[in-house]
Amino acid sequence: MRPFFLTFTFAALLSAQSPLVDRVGPTAFVQIQAESFKSLTPRQQALTYWLTQASIAIDPIIYDQESRFGLRQKRVLEAVVAAKDRVDPAIYARVLPFTKLFWGNKGNHNEMTAQKVLPEFTADELKKALTQAGHKELLVEVDALNQSLFDPAYEPMMTAKSPSGGKDILQASSNNFYLGVSLDDLKGFNEKYRLNSRLVKESGRLVEEVYRTGTPDGKVKPGLYATYLKKANGYLEKAKAYAEPAQAKVIDDLIRYYQTGEYADWVKFGIDWVQNTDTPVDFANGFIEIYRDARGAKGTSQSFVSITDQKLSAAIHKIADNAQYFEEKAPWLPLYKKQGVKPPTAMAVETTVLTGDFHVTTIGDNLPNEDEIRAKYGSKSFLFGSSSRAFDVVTGSALIDEFVMSPEEAALDRKYETEADELLTALHEVIGHGSGKLNPKLTNVASFYLKEYFSTLEEARADLMALWNVFDPKLKELGIVKTDDIGKVMYNNAARTMLAQLRRIPSGDTIEEDHQRNRQLIANYIMDKTGAIAYEKRDGKTYVVVKDYAKMHEGVGLLLAELMRIKGEGDYAAIKNLIDQYAVHFDPKLRDEVVARYQKLNLPTYWAGVNSELKAQFDAKGKVTKVEISYPRDVVKQQLGYSALYQ
To answer: Model's pTM, two decimal places?
Structure first.
């Protein structure tokens, strides 16, 4: 994920031609488009339709994962929003924007900061609105949800990896991966379903509530989220009929995994999925990323459906084909270097849908996450062109003008910022995440040893691989980089983001989100170890500047080598020390300065997405005869439509 430096006159861009469709305070809703859908064959379009339906089917799960109150809150809010004509307009005008934020964040905690989002209406007003909407049966729910919705001190953080007062990170987090469980409870516990279960304490013992539908023969009983997973499996079964044989097998693997919940079935799906490369329509669907879990173990429900942009993928393929070269050039010890690197499948894509914990601000991804699959079978890298293009439409220079100290640097950044950002994303995903190997003495995955610090390490390692290689002559030889100025702009951004990203953390003095921690870790470490980055003041404003690009490159290499060593050895103490020292804390006075400067620009701080809409026509036997794509501009209609599909 990259930082977005955006400027625009919002009212002017809120038009039928703009990807911006709505705004609630600092949050803007942006529409994603997939025009390449029209180039697919009718069979491929039908496949895309059913895979998209399967994505929508699992979307409710993330609301429950992020809070045990999430789905109940969702039901109450939507009951009001769906009854616009019957609800007091003054109350409706306060419930509606909060509900939009709730949808955008998948709950009432900000998806970037993890901090609680509070409504501007009262519990009594919500009750009045429900009564007017004809939902008196939900009045008791408002009482039951009172603290979770209205009390700022109740479960204030969705994910708390560095809670104050030495609190337990699981109990300080409001997410729903654990119930009545502390880190101490997990000592010596044999966790069979690490990725896809909720851990609860029953009668003093730990129980894994597995996410699964159960098997048709009844040998495996249904588990948590069975309703949603069963509906997804139904759509996946229909998708199989339109898939080529290899991809049909992949889909069948996923259906089996959702039935059993067994890790072995997830790995089988991952192996077949990563080897299925010759397909213009691809997808991700499962319990995938572990960022939301303070412990770094539980996967969140997320999905996308993508269509490959063959033309834009060509340059990315050049990077992927040279993965072994970049591995050999990495600054870490030979012990951690892969041999016989299988080039990742890299592609530029457009998405028809992003659901669950995939957000519109995710502009690149590399999957699968399991090292045991990557090492033997490789990985797939996706660059989400549909998201990037939407943001490019509204990209301007206001943030550069505000946070870049010299006119010369600002001019350079304006000239090459898009290229630098896109190259950072490509190198991050294609050669970053898939690089390196663990010491053979380790008997488990790296996240098992590095726990709550693993995700920050992995994101930093991938960014550093981009920063380390951007000046490599190989990129010029491949025709990907024409000038070293692109690398300089990438370095400027890496330094400056530490400062600019503080606009997204309006309160407190700690960073919880892993991508933000990663960026601060890199800049602070290099500043401390090399002096290549420095804070400077001008006219009462603070800036971060690169003083020496060569020294910064040295610092990049130092940190990259150490992070690979830590990952390779599972050195928890070392990564804890690094992140606690450089990545977590910031000066709130500096943040307040940044927030004040940013507010004057009138730019959105957070982003949410609006998916395209696929409509299918069927013959008498239920076979898809035609699929049309459109781009709705109504957040409310789309979200209420999604809810109607799984009620």
So the answer is: 0.88
